[in-house]
Amino acid sequence: MRQDDKTRTDDETGMGRRQFFRALGGGTAAAAAAVASVPLGTTEAQAYDPGNAETRSRYRETDHVKAFYRTNGYETLKK
Amino acid sequence: MARMKFLCDADRCIECNACVTACKNEHEVPWGINRRRVITLNDGKPGERSVSMACMHCTDAPCAAVCPVNCFYTTADAVVLHSKDLCIGCGYCFYACPFGAPQYPRVGNFGSRGKMDKCTYCSGGPEVDLSVAEYEKYGSNRLAEGKLPLCAEMCSTKSLLAGDGEMIAQIYKERVIKRGYGSGAWGWKTAYRETIAI
Amino acid sequence: MLTKRRSGVAGRGSHQALAAGLTAHTLDRRGFLRKSGLAAGGLAALGTVRLGAVRPAQAAGSSADPAQAVIRKNICTHCSVGCTVTAEVVNGVWVGQEPSWASPINRGAHCAKGAAIRELVHSDRRLRYPMKIVNGEWQRVSWEQAITEITDKLQAIRNKNGADSVYWLGSAKFTNEASYLFRKFGAFWGTNNVDHQARICHSTTVAGVANTWGYGAQTNSYNDIRNAKTMIILGGNPAEAHPVSMQHVLSGKEINRANMIVIDPRFTRTAAHANEYVRIRSGTDIPVIWGILWHVFQNGWEDKAFIAQRVYAMDDVRKEVAKWTPDEVERVSGVPGEQLKRVAELFAKEKPSTLIWCMGATQHTVGTANVRALCILCLATGNVGKPGTGTNIFRGHTNVQGATDLGLDVTTLPLYYGLVEGGWKHWARVWDVEYDWLQSRFDEVPASAGRKARTRKENMETPGLTSTRWFDAVSLPADQVDQRTPLKAMMVFGHGGNTVTRMPEAVKGMAELELLVVADPHPTTFAAMDARKDNTYLLPICTSLEMDGSRTASNRSIQWGEQVVKPAFESKTDYEVIYRMAQKLGFAETLFKGIKVVDNVPDAEDLLREINRGGWSTGYCGQSPERLKAHMKNQHKFDLVTLRAPKDDPEVGGDYYGLPWPCWGKPELKHPGTHILYNTSLHVKEGGGTFRARFGTERNGATLLAEDSFSLGSDLTDGYPEFTFGVFRKLGWDKDLTADELATIQRIGGNNPDAVSWATDLSGGIQRVCLDHGVIPFGNGKARANAWNLPDPVPVHREPVYSPRPDLVAKYPTRLDERQFRMPNVGFSVQKAAVDRGIAKQFPIILSSGRLVEYEGGGEETRSNPWLAELQQDMFVEVNTADAAERGIKDGQFVWVYGPENTAKAKVKALVTDRVAKGVAWMPFHFSGWYQGKDMRDFYPKGADPVVLGESVNTVTTYGFDPVTGMQETKVTLCQISAA
C-alpha cells in the first residue's frame, strides 16, 4: 500500500520543496546563487588520511551533555 | 579518556521508535537506510521486550577486522567510524557484524551495493568536523558540537543511554538497585566484552 | 508492526533515487535546507562553509562568523502530553530539532512522531494552494476566489435552508485561541452545530467526570503519576498513544516499586511492562469495575471517612455492585474472581492509587457509564484529590483539552457556559454584542413529525448535531432531523474523514452535500473518496507549529507555542481564514472588536486576553499571555514531580507549570494554577480545592455539600454552595469588594445583582474575595456516586449493540431507542435485529480498533511523513493464531475483513498473533486511501497523497452511540475474516 515509483517522481517534476524553499527561505539572490553553485568542490572526495585529526576525542561534558545525564537519573530523589 | 557507549535499558524500551525517527531527522537518512532499529522479542506474548539497536561501536570491531580496504577506524572516544571514500560496498562488514548495523543504499551482489552507511554515534566521519562534505556523507557531528547522539537524547522513556561508559554504568546501576531486580541490558557484553559490576 | 522488519528491503527497490541521496553528489533536501540557511548569512562566499555555524555557537573551533540559529519553542501536536518541541531556525528555515531538556513534561524526550515533527512542516506532500474540484478534476484557485465562492455559497445555503444547515467541524489541533474563535464564529453564524474530535475520543469522559465531581478533565498530571504506589491502566495503551507519559509511569513504577496493572482485551505494549495483566472481553468494563468493587466492599477495604465526608449516595452503588459476584463477573467478562480480588486489594490498600484510562473506556455505547464507574472506584477507595491518586485521563491531540474547554462542542459555549440564557448573555457581554442580535442569527424551527416548533431562543438553547452523525443528518428523511432542514454543507477544519464509524454511510452523505470545504494541511480522506464532482474546496491551513498561541495539555497546563516558521507554501493560519470568512459574511468588525488584526491575521495574544476576560467558570482567567510566555522561558525552574517553581523566583515564583486551570482571578492576582484538582490539603491560593457544588445543595433530604471536609485554611469549615453576590451579602463579604468591582456586579446584575456569581462576575471581585477567605469559588460539594440526571444514574452493564454474546442481551440490553441531539438513536432496534438474525454466528469475531505509535488519528499527516511511513507501510489486522489456523490464514497475507452492515469489507494484511485472544481481531484506525479493496490514490490532488495508504477500519465498523454524548462505538463490533 506504499506508493509506487510513479508517484514519487513528482519530486523531480513538480514544484519541489527545494524550489519552494528557495523562493521562500533563500529569497535573496545570494542564496539562490549559493544553491546553484553548490557542487563547489565540497562533495568531491578528499583523500582519506586517518591521522590524529580524525581520531582525536571530541566528547566534552558540556551543559548539554550534563542535562542528558541528569534527566536520565532519578533526579528528584537527590533533592 | 571517556569511552562512548550505547546501552538500551529493555525495562524501559516501549518500541516507540523515537530513536529511529530522531536519527532520520538529524541526518536526513533516506528511505530504506536504517541506522537504528527497534527489535521486539516475544512480540505479543508475556515477556515481550524491545531493544533499540544500532552500531554498538565495538571494542575490537569485527567489521574492521574483515574489511578488505581497511576503511574503518576507531576514534579516541571509542567510536567506530569509516571512510566512504575507501569503502567498496563489498558487504563483508554486514556479515561480520553481530548487530546487523551496516546498511547499503542498494540491494545487489558483491561490490554493487553502494557505500556502506551506519550509525556514526553522531560524530561524522573523516572529513573536517562540521563541514558540508562531512554532513553530506555521514550526517551531523553532534559530538563535535558538545552533544550526544540524538536517538538517545530524544528517547521517550530514557531507555536508550549514550555517553561516557562510566556515567552510563552509574545511571543504569542506580536503576537496577531501585528496581530490585536484574539487568535488562542487551548487547553490552557482546559489544564490549566487559562485565558490568552491578 | 507486521512488515516493518522487512521494510528496509521492501522500501529500497522502489526508492532508489531517495536511497541514493546519502552518497549521491546531487544536492538533496537536507543539503539545501542547511545551506539555504547559511547562504543568507553571507557565509557561502567564504568557501569553507562550516556547518556547525547553523548550530548554536557552542560548537568550538569555528573561525567563521556563526550564523545564529534562532531557537523557537512550540508544542508537539501529536498527543496531549504536551512535549515541548525545540526548533532551530536559520533564515526562516527549520533546520534542526534539539532535545527540550528544560521542559518538566518531556525533559528532552519525544516519541517517533515528535522526533519526526520537523518533516510535518517541511513536507512536500502538504496541500500547497487552495483547490476546488470541477467535474471531478482538482483545480488550483486563488485564496480570494476560494473564500469568495465559499462564502457566497454559504450565504445562499443559509438564506434557503437556515443557519443550522451548515456544520462547523473544528479541530483538536487548533490553538486555544483558534478554538475559541471558531466557537465564537459559530455563535455569530447562528448555530450550535460546532464540534470537534473530543466527540470521538473523550466526550464521554468529560460528561462522566464532570457529572461526578465538577470538571471534565484529568484530575492530576502525567508527572504526578510518579507518586502513585498502584496504577491501573484500563482501556489505554500509552506505550503507543502517549509514549512520553511512559517516562513518568515507568519511573514511578521503579521509584515506588509500584504495582502496575493493565486491564485490556489486548496484550498491549503497555501490558508488556505491567506487573499484572487482566484480559477482559471488550465492552465489559462495568462488570469488571463492579467486580473489583465487590471485593472492596466485601472486605471492608473502602475509605469510609472519605465516603462519609465527600461522596453522595455510595449506598446506591453498593446495591448494584452486590449483583456482580465473582461468578457473574467471570461469566460476563471472562476474568477470574481471584485475579480481581488481587487487583482490588492492591488498589484499595497500597495507596495512593491512580486510575488511567483512554479510548478503550470511552468509545462505547456505555462510554459515559464506564467513566462514571471508574470515578466511583476512585471515590470508594479515597483515591481522588491527593498526590499519586486521581483519574489520570490521557487525552488525544495537543489541544483536545483546550478545544473542549473553549467550547468546540454542540452542548456548550466557551469554558462550559451552558446553552442557556445566562450563558449566552455572559458571552454577549464579553463579546460586546447585543444578546438579541445573537438570537436573531438562529433559525426558527417549524413543528415536524409530532415535535413542537422551536423559537429562535429555544433553538439557540438546543444542543446541536454530534459529529458522529453528520452524514445521518444529511441522508435521513428531513422529518427525522430535528432542525429547520437537514445538513447541506460541511465546513471541516483539521479533522480526518475516516475517524467516524460507518464509512459507507459517510461516503453516501458526502455525495449528497451541497458544499464541502476541507481546511487542513493535507487533503484528508474527505478529498479522496471519489464521492464528489463539484462544490468541494480544499484550503491549505498551516500546521499548528506555524502558529502562535496557547495549547492546553491533558493535565490542564497551558503552554504558549511560538510560530516556528511562517506558514509554508500558500497555507494560512486558522485565524486568518476565519477572519477572511467573517469579512465576507459581514460580521468581522463585531467578531474582532478589540482584537488587533495585522494583514488579515488576528492577534493570538489579544484573543487569549479576551478568553481571560470571560473564562471565570473554568479558571481560564489568570493565564495571561505574559504569564504563559514567562513559563516557557523559565521551564527549567519547575519541579519534575510537583510541577511547582520555587516561591522566590521573580518571574514565576510559586506557580505550577503552565498555570493548570483553574487559575483563579485576574492575572495580577498571581494565582499559581491548580496542579491537582479537589485537593483539600492545600489552601486555595496554593492550588487547593474541593469537589464542586454543582448540583444543588440537597436531594431527597440528603445534603449534597461536603461534611467536615474543606480545603486548608478555609474560613468556612464545612460544605458550602457556590458563591454569588447574594451569598456574599449574607456572609457580609460584599464589604470586601472594591467600588469598581461592586459597580461591575451591579451593572451585570441589573435588577437582580444577587444572582451574579463567581462565573459571571466580570470584575473578578467575587473570586478575589473568595481566595482571601480561603474558599473555592465553585463551592464545596460532594462527588456524586448517583448522578440522577444521567440515563443510568448508577452505571449498569449493557451489552454492545453487536454483542458476541446474544445469550446475555436479554439480561443486559442496550438502552431503548430514543431521540438525542436532534437525531434518532435506534441502538436497541439494531441490537434486537442482530440477535434475531444470528449476526454473531455469521460474524463470530469481535473487532476492536486502536492506535499505532507511528501514526495519529486519521493519519493523513503522519502517513505523509516518510520517516514515519517507512515504519508502518501496510494496514493490517491482528488475528489470533487459532482463528488464523481455522481459516487457513498465513501471517502477512492479504485477508478480507467483513463487517455486519452495508455488506462492507476491507482488504488488509494479516498479522497472526496471540496479542489478541481467540475470537478477537484488532485493527489500527489511522489508515485510509483504500476503500473496500480499491486503491484511491488517484483521487488525491496530485502530489498531496500520503506516502502510505490503506483501508480504514471504519469501513467495517458499525452502529452504536452513547446516549449522553453521541460517542460512537469503535471498540466492539463483529466481523468475519477470510483469506483474500
UniProtKB/TrEMBL annotation, chain A:
Task: Tell me which InterPro entries the record gives.
Answer: Formate_DH_TAT-contain (IPR014177), TAT_signal (IPR006311)
Q: What is this protein called?
A: Formate dehydrogenase
For the keyword Transmembrane helix, the answer is yes
Reading the lineage from the top rank, the first entry is Bacteria
Q: Which organism is this protein's natural source?
A: Methylobacterium terricola
Any transmembrane segments, and where?
20-40
Q: Which NCBIfam families match?
A: formate_TAT (TIGR02811)
Task: Tell me which UniProt keywords the record has, alphabetically.
Answer: Membrane, Transmembrane, Transmembrane helix
PROSITE patterns the record matches: TAT (PS51318)
TrEMBL record, chain B:
Organism the protein comes from: Methylobacterium variabile
Its keywords, alphabetically, are: 4Fe-4S, Iron, Iron-sulfur, Metal-binding
* 4Fe-4S ferredoxin-type domain mapped to chain residues: 4-34, 78-107
Official protein name in the record: Formate dehydrogenase
**An MF annotation (GO) of this entry:** metal ion binding
| Xref: Pfam families | Fer4_6 (PF12837)
**Per the UniProt record, which residue ranges are transmembrane?**
none
InterPro entries, per this entry?
Answer: 4Fe4S_Fe-S-bd, 4Fe4S_Fe_S_CS, ET_IronSulfur_Cluster-Binding
TrEMBL record, chain C:
One GO MF term attached to the UniProt entry = molybdopterin cofactor binding
The membrane-spanning stretches of this chain are none
Matching entries from SMART domains are given as: Molybdop_Fe4S4
Organism of origin is: Methylobacterium terricola
Give the record's GO biological process terms: anaerobic respiration
- Report the principal subcellular site: other
PANTHER family per UniProt: FORMATE DEHYDROGENASE-O MAJOR SUBUNIT, TUNGSTEN-CONTAINING FORMYLMETHANOFURAN DEHYDROGENASE 2 SUBUNIT B
InterPro entries in alphabetical order: Asp_de-COase-like_dom_sf, MoPterin_dinucl-bd_dom, Mopterin_OxRdtase, Mopterin_OxRdtase_4Fe-4S_dom, MopterinOxRdtase_cofactor_BS, TAT_signal
**Family indicated by similarity:** Belongs to the prokaryotic molybdopterin-containing oxidoreductase family.
So which cofactors does this thing need?
Mo-bis(molybdopterin guanine dinucleotide); [4Fe-4S] cluster
The record's annotation in SUPFAM superfamilies points to:
ADC-like, Formate dehydrogenase/DMSO reductase, domains 1-3
Listed under GO cellular component are:
cell envelope
Q: Name one Pfam family in it.
A: Molybdopterin
Q: Could you list this entry's UniProt keywords, alphabetically sorted.
A: 4Fe-4S, Iron, Iron-sulfur, Metal-binding, Molybdenum, Oxidoreductase, Signal
**Cellular location(s):** Cell envelope
Q: What is this protein called?
A: Formate dehydrogenase
Task: Report domain 4Fe-4S Mo/W bis-MGD-type positions.
Answer: 69-125
Per the UniProt entry, the signal peptide is none
